[in-house]
Amino acid sequence: MSRNHSSRTSARNAARHALSRAASPDRRVTTEAAHDLPGGAHELGQNLLVDTQVIRRVVDLVPDADRPLVEWAAGRGALTLPLARLGRPLEAVEIDPRSTGRLGRTVPGNVTVTRDDILRHAPPSDPYDLVCNVPFHLTTPVLRRLFTLTGWQRAVLITQWEVARKRAAVGGATLLTAQWWPWFSPRLDRRVPAGAFRPRPSVDAGVLVLDRRAEPLLPAHEQRRYQRFAAAVFNGRGRGLHEILARHGLPRDDVRRWARENDVRPGALPRELDAHAWVGAYRVSRR
Ligand SMILES: C[S@@+](CC[C@H](N)C(=O)[O-])C[C@H]1O[C@@H](n2cnc3c(N)ncnc32)[C@H](O)[C@@H]1O
C-alpha cells in the first residue's frame, strides 16, 4: 500500500474514531449517520452464516493483494473475524447497533466497525476488495450501487441462488449483467444450501464473484451510450438477434459477419450473448 494511501486511510479512520468516541462506548465503532433502531431480524435480512466451509471459501476468494477490505452487512462478524485474520485494514459496515456494539467489542485492531446503511456508505476511492453477505431484500440496490462505485477490485457476494446464477449469466444473462459486462466479469462460485444460515432462509444462496476488468472491453466514456444500446436490444422487437439488430438499424451484412465471428445463431435471444458479442454488436452499431 502506498504511503499516501495509508495516510489517507489513517486520516479517515482517525475521523471515524473521533466520531465514534462521541457516539459509542466502544472506541472501534463509528456511527456515520444517526439511525433509529432499524428493525427486526427479519426486516433486516439477518440470516447469519454458520457454515464454516462456506466462511472459509469466501475468505479464500478474497484476492491475495496489498489493499484494504470493506465488508458490507457485517452482522455479528461471521465473516469479519476470519477476514480480519488476513491482517489487512478492514472496515466492517452494519446498520444494526446491536450487532455493531457487539462486533466493536470483539474485533482486533486492524478492523473499524462502522454503523451505516450500505446503500449510503462511502467506501474508499482507492483500490480495495469488498465482501458482502447481502441482506436478501437489498440484492438489486446493492448490485446497482456496486457497479457505480469505482474503488473495489473484487466483490465476493452471497446472494439468493437464482440471483447469483442470473448475474453470473448462467443459463442466460440479465440486462443488468449485459449493461456492465464490458467493465466487470461475474462468476458463479458455488451454491450455498439454506442450512448454512441461521435462521434458515426459504431459498438456497450462491457465492457470486465480481471482478473489475483490468482492461475494460469499452472505455468509460462509452458507458451510457453502450448501456442504452444494450437496453434497446434487450427489449427490442423481433424473432431473434438478427431481426432485432436489423430493426435497430444495423446493416444486415454487418450483423451476419458479427454473428459468424461471435458464433451467434440467427434465432438467438439477447440473453444468450456473452460480453464480447455484446461489445461487438455495439461496435457495429457505432460504425
Ligand atoms: C445476511 S446478514 C449477514 C451477516 C453476516 N455478515 C453473516 O454473514 O453472518 C445481513 C446483515 O445486513 C444487515 N443489514 C440489513 N440492512 C442493512 C443496511 N441497509 N445497511 C447495512 N447493514 C444492513 C443486517 O442487520 C444483517 O446483519
UniProtKB/TrEMBL annotation:
Q: What is the lineage of its organism?
A: Bacteria, Bacillati, Actinomycetota, Actinomycetes, Micrococcales
Q: E.C. number, please?
A: 2.1.1.184
Which protein, by its recorded name, is this?
23S rRNA (Adenine-N6)-dimethyltransferase
What positions does the entry give for S-adenosyl-L-methionine binding? N47, L49, E94, D117, N133
Identify the Gene3D superfamilies for this entry. Answer: Vaccinia Virus protein VP39
What the record says about family reads: Belongs to the class I-like SAM-binding methyltransferase superfamily. rRNA adenine N(6)-methyltransferase family.
Annotated Ribosomal RNA adenine methylase transferase N-terminal domain ranges read 54-214
Q: Which UniProt keywords apply?
A: Methyltransferase, RNA-binding, S-adenosyl-L-methionine, Transferase
Q: Which InterPro entries match?
A: KsgA/Erm, rRNA_Ade_methylase_Trfase_N, SAM-dependent_MTases_sf
Query: Region (Disordered): which ranges?
Result: 1-32
* NCBIfam families reported in the protein's UniProt record: Erm23S_rRNA_broad
Q: Which class of enzymes does this protein belong to?
A: transferase
Bias kind Polar residues: ranges: 1-12
GO MF annotation terms = 23S rRNA (adenine(2085)-N(6))-dimethyltransferase activity
